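We give this protein:

***
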Amino acid sequence: MTIETILSLGLAAAAFAGFLRFYGMVRQEHAQFKRFANSTLFLQSKVEEVRSGVYGPSLDKLTWFEFDQGGTNVWKTTPQTDGRYSWHLTAENNPAGAKLFAFKTVLTWQEGKRTNVISAATQMVLP
């Protein structure tokens, strides 16, 4: 084998290795994006379920409790597990006495050792 052939093979191997690294990163990013898109869709469906009255017209089918969050009292529901996701609602006031109720839906899920959290805030008129 000539030196030119050896150098060409080495250069081709280095280029192919670079391509494989790039391809692996693109696949990983695509998988992360797909999981995030699925979780965002799930979060939106939970928000719509709450707003449509699946959990009662005054959200009375959810168990609410008050807790202290750094000196501020916050209302929170018991976490619900649905498949790989866990979700709960948080609010600054109890929904029992509110007419216009602002709340945040919080969704968490595990990916390996990492816990991911996304949330969406909205409001609704209660009867």
